[in-house]
Specification:
heterodimer, A: mainly alpha, Four Helix Bundle (Hemerythrin (Met), subunit A), about 0% strand, elongated, B: mainly alpha, Cytochrome C Oxidase, Chain A, about 65% helix
Chain lengths: ~190, ~550
């Protein structure tokens, strides 16, 4: 070491809100990924008009319900954050449970819609692109469920207050991102067509 | 004020490590993970630059190929780009950041060391699979001999390589944002830390677009071929959808960490802080902002139209903005040197850093000229002979070689600068100076040959077109030969760097280093090397605490 001296501190043993920061960065990357997917889809639609797309019957009602359910799950997720900040363990667990339940319902509706449309990979470019975008949404949804459940376990162990709420907030932030991504994909693929 | 730790020799900096394979697989020491990244990346740098030179050699004879054949040339070209960006440049700077950033911000460790380790091994395995896929005829334009699974493997491996690097980026950026020592504001962080932060954010916003494209290409290639249709062009369409990442403006992101290294090395040689640091910091951030090139992929999905109309105006503005920002950064460093307290010592890191600054400037100037001429031609204000826009000719290869030269020089400067901390030893000074010279001359001459070929003959940069040899007339073979000679010199420089690292640092033949041999200002030079000693870390109020201590001592005297 040099002879120069500096004041010291005990070192960063804990990093408050670091998980929220890491999740925000993952959300930034995920947003870029989804923008790339949807942007690619829109560019190709502008260029080739997707032969074969007209044969697909789009189940509008279930798809609208997916959007509403996803938004409801997001709102309930923020209830979990609110409760965790106030150290309300019962409310927190109930809210996380309801959020996960709604997300599972969302997943079920997305899979049902895909099944109704008979999305068959490899049969047309439209099918391929929609399969890929929806596949990513499904994967991100499953990650959200696992993330929320892990945070629920921490809440069950009494890890609440500002730090516990920051962790739950991170998992809810991730779900918020999935909701926005799905709304954009739904609008670009099924509304604009 | 209290002593941070006891005086110790730099050679004793490296903590005791488990040398077995288990030690490599389960270490959580950020220094070791960083070194693993850096050494692997320097090896890949040598391999990729040599491959680039061999690819260039094949354009020197109008009658046929010298090294490869018509089947493998385009894939070798693509591998030279893939390997430089994703197996050498980015992993080196990710590894260097993992090694040095915690000490620069007074954190002592990375926030998620196991994620950093996972990032390294996932990158390593993906990189090996990627090279294997190329060897199995799976690169762009490959898969034509009934081995289309290799193309699928290439697409997956490239996506996994990028994802694993992004994991490392998230770890480093999270560490910077959430673990800085009390009092160290982000705008006062050392130059390399700031450059790492803005590069990381740029990569997080850009590379996922490539992952999205690779996903579509994989689904298209893997499943559509069952119906004998490749909607996105199949193996032939791969390169046209991913090559944007090897072009400016995306390439500017690679220059940002080089500017960070320059910001560490040059002011120390002048024995003073950089002049107008806030402007320098903003300019480095601006280069990263102008490197957000994901939109060029989307704009270019249906053809090479991004140099026309409003997209062309944005395109030229990004080049011009990056050029202005780089010129500001380099200019501030020149002023700092001119008004320095001491005449700079011509150490190897200083020479490599100065050469990297020159090469960075050349890269953005060449790119801006090309983009500007293309745009002027698109609005009928200017006409040049070549049929293709310059950005589709080997003019763009020239810019790649200049960026590659700047990055290689930045890597050379960074290895030389931080080797005393990483290994307790110096690189061989003579070899390191010769390395800097070869890298500078080689990449410059290689770029000169390519730029002239593109401008004079309009030789296309697309490897499929290039490999047809329709265009090869006397002027282009002569200019291609000039470029190939430059690339061979460039390759020799990269191999020399690898040898120097292997002999001086890994084999321990380099001279032992003092604690702070360069008289550097940044906190890593006064931070305990052993994690066990990190119970107390420096509380920082600036990124140059050692300079302030030195100034305070001078005043008190």
């Amino acid at each position: 070491m040099s002879d120069a001296t500096m004041a010291t501190y005990p070192g960063a043993t804990t990093a408050p809100r670091s998980q929220l920061v890491a999740t925000a960065l993952a959300v930034a990357a995920g947003s870029s990924l989804m923008a790339g997917l949807i942007g690619f889809y829109m560019s190709r639609r502008h260029a080739v008009a997707f032969p074969g797309q007209d044969d697909v019957v789009i189940p509008n009602a279930p798809l609208v319900m997916t959007v509403l359910t996803a938004i409801m799950a997001s709102l309930v997720g923020h209830w979990a954050v609110w409760a965790a900040k106030r150290r309300e363990q019962g409310h927190t667990l109930l809210a996380i449970g309801a959020t996960v339940l709604l997300i599972v319902a969302f997943l079920n509706m997305v899979l049902f819609s895909m099944n109704e449309m008979d999305i068959a990979i490899g049969t047309s470019e439209w099918h391929n692109l929609v399969f890929t975008i929806t596949g990513y949404i499904i994967a991100l949804t499953i990650i959200s469920i696992v993330y929320l459940l892990l945070m629920g376990l921490r809440a069950l162990g009494g890890d609440l207050g500002d730090e516990g709420a920051a962790l739950i907030n991170a998992s809810v932030l991730f779900w918020d991102f999935v909701v926005v991504a799905w709304v954009c994909a739904w609008y670009a693929i099924y509304v604009v067509k | 004020m209290t002593e941070t730790t006891e005086t110790s020799s730099a050679s004793g900096r490296a903590p005791q490590e488990d040398p077995s394979i288990f030690g490599l697989l389960n270490t959580v020491d950020h220094r070791r993970i960083g070194r693993m990244f850096m050494v692997s990346a320097v090896a890949m740098l040598a391999a990729s630059v040599v491959l680039t030179a061999l690819v260039g050699l094949d354009l020197t004879d109008a009658d046929g190929f010298v090294v490869f054949d018509s089947h493998s040339w385009a894939q070798a070209f693509a591998l030279s780009r893939d390997s430089f960006v994703f197996l050498a440049a980015l992993p080196f700077f990710v590894g260097m950041a993992m090694f040095i950033v915690p000490a620069q911000i007074g954190a002592g460790r990375l926030i998620y060391p196991r994620a950093a380790l996972a990032s390294f091994w996932a990158w390593k395995i993906s990189a090996l699979i990627l090279v294997g896929a190329y060897l199995a005829n799976g690169g762009p334009y490959g898969g034509s001999r009934g081995d289309s699974e290799a193309v699928d493997l290439h697409l997956i491996a490239l996506g996994m390589t990028i994802a694993s690097l992004l994991l490392g980026v998230v770890v480093v950026v999270t560490t910077i944002l959430s673990m800085r020592a009390p009092g160290l504001h982000i705008d006062q962080a050392p130059p390399f830390t700031w450059a790492t932060l803005v590069t990381g954010i740029g990569l997080l916003l850009t590379l996922p677009v490539l992952v999205a494209t690779l996903s579509f290409l994989y689904i298209d290639h893997r499943y559509s071929t069952r119906f004998d249709v490749d909607f996105l062009g199949g193996n032939v369409g791969v390169w046209s959808h991913i090559e944007w990442v090897y072009r400016a403006p995306t390439l500017f992101l690679l220059l940002v960490p080089v500017l960070g290294v320059i910001g560490e090395v040059l002011p120390v040689a002048a024995r003073r802080r950089i002049i107008m640091p806030a402007i320098g910091t903003a300019a480095v951030g601006a280069v990263a902002m102008f490197g957000l090139g994901g939109w060029t992929q989307l704009a270019g999905v249906e053809g090479a139209t991004i140099s026309d109309g409003w997209q062309g105006a944005v395109y030229v503005a990004m080049f011009a903005g990056a050029k202005l920002a780089v010129v500001v950064v380099v200019g501030l460093h020149l002023l700092t040197l001119a008004e320095g307290r001491a005449i700079p010592k011509l150490s190897a890191p200083f020479l490599a850093g100065a050469a990297a600054a020159a090469m960075t400037t050349l890269a953005v100037v060449l790119g801006t000229v090309g983009a500007g001429l293309d745009w002027l031609e698109s609005v009928n204000a200017f006409t040049i002979d070549p049929e293709l826009p310059l950005r589709l000719t080997t003019w763009s290869d020239a810019q790649f070689y200049l960026v590659a030269g700047a990055v290689a020089l930045g890597i050379s400067a960074a290895m030389g600068w931080w080797a005393p901390l990483a290994y307790g030893r110096h690189l061989n000074p003579a070899l390191a100076r010769l390395t800097a010279l070869l890298l500078f001359v080689g990449s410059f001459v290689g770029a000169l040959g390519s730029a002239l070929t593109g401008f004079v003959t309009g030789q296309p940069s697309d490897p499929a077109l290039n490999a047809r040899y329709d265009f090869l007339a006397d002027p282009s073979t002569a200019l291609n030969t000039l470029g190939a000679v430059g690339l061979l010199i460039f390759g020799a420089g990269a191999v020399l760097l690898l040898l120097d690292v292997a002999i001086s640092l890994l084999a321990g033949k380099g001279a032992e280093a003092d604690d702070n041999p360069w008289g550097a200002f940044t906190p890593e030079w006064d931070t305990p090397a052993d994690p066990a000693e990190s119970a107390r870390l420096p509380a920082l109020t600036s990124g140059t605490p050692l300079l302030e201590s030195h100034d305070a001592e001078e005043v008190s005297v």
